[in-house]
């Protein structure tokens, strides 16, 4: 069993699973796992079965369980949530995901009745894509590939910003202005 899928690695806090390249400081790991959240067990099983062999997928039955999964096993590259769930709807759940892990790409699966709320969520900036039910496998796979590309860009941007910050702190410690073009 690989370390990626061992039970022990799922229990480690995310910082313990983060890669630390020599000399580069802490960087986010590119896990590229997907969490699918829905209150319907049949939908969860169907999604997991249809994605088997293509993506590493975890599932959670509802928003509270989704947040627990993220805290236990996160971060995820992509979180896909159904809109209509008891206790917490998908848009509310994905807002929490954004606060916990801003680099995670968030997608909302919704029926036509919820379309206005899904569009609002996208426009407010915390949903990458919304998918309408019923959604065929090809459409979801295409959205996941686009989401993975977005996730990789998010992680790269985060890592570059962190590296630039570390360089600026280092240069400041040497008494050099990090904005100066030709440091002496």
Which terms summarize this structure?
Rossmann fold, 184 residues, alpha/beta, disordered N terminus
Judging by the overall fold, what is the CATH architecture? 3-Layer(aba) Sandwich
Strand content: 5-15%
Q: Give me the CATH superfamily.
A: Response regulator
Query: CATH fold name, please?
Result: Rossmann fold
Major sheet strand order: 2-1-3-4-5
Give the tally of structural domains: 1
Summarize model confidence as the mean pLDDT. Answer: 78
End-to-end distance, in Å?
52 Å
User: Care to count the β-strands?
Assistant: 5
Sequence-ordered SSE layout with sheet pairings:
Layout: H1 7-11, H2 14-17, E1 33-37, H3 41-51, E2 56-60, H4 63-73, E3 78-82, H5 90-100, E4 105-110, H6 115-123, E5 129-132, H7 137-173
What does this structure look like?
There is one protein chain. By secondary structure, this protein is α/β, with parallel strands linked by helices. The protein has helices at 7-11, 14-17, 41-51, 63-73, 90-100, 115-123, 137-173; strands at 33-37, 56-60, 78-82, 105-110, 129-132. The chain has one domain (29-173): Response regulator (Rossmann fold). A 5-stranded parallel beta sheet has the order 2-1-3-4-5, with helices on both faces. Helix 6 links the parallel strand 4 and strand 5. Residues 1-30 have low confidence and may be disordered.
